[in-house]
Please model this.
Amino acid sequence: MKPVELEIFLQDGLTPGLRSAGKTVQNFANDTKSQLKDVAGALAVQRKVVHNLEEEYRKLEKTVGNMAPGQSRNQASSQLASLKKELEDEKAGLEELGRRQRALKYEADNAQHHFVSNCGMNKDKH
Model:
């Protein structure tokens, strides 16, 4: 075989496959970016939930602090403990969404970069 023929064969045989792989990577990156938008929306909602629970907790805590000892204060203290648990759970959910968002950002930012650097292709050409 002549070296020129080998080059032409490799160039013609690999380019379509690399383009296809590049499109797959691009689709993955786009899907990841779409998921990022969904997570960002969920984060906004979760932040609001946490903020509202924190406000409710502060108000109830103040109310309990101003109450005279007795059954009413005990009930309010129970409500305060339940609210605190709910707030902790919602904060944990918020942290999990934040971790998911960071992971998705990493995937979206690096998927195409790794493909391009490993294949020696320039993404702007395809």
In short: Residues 3-66 form the longest helix (64 residues).
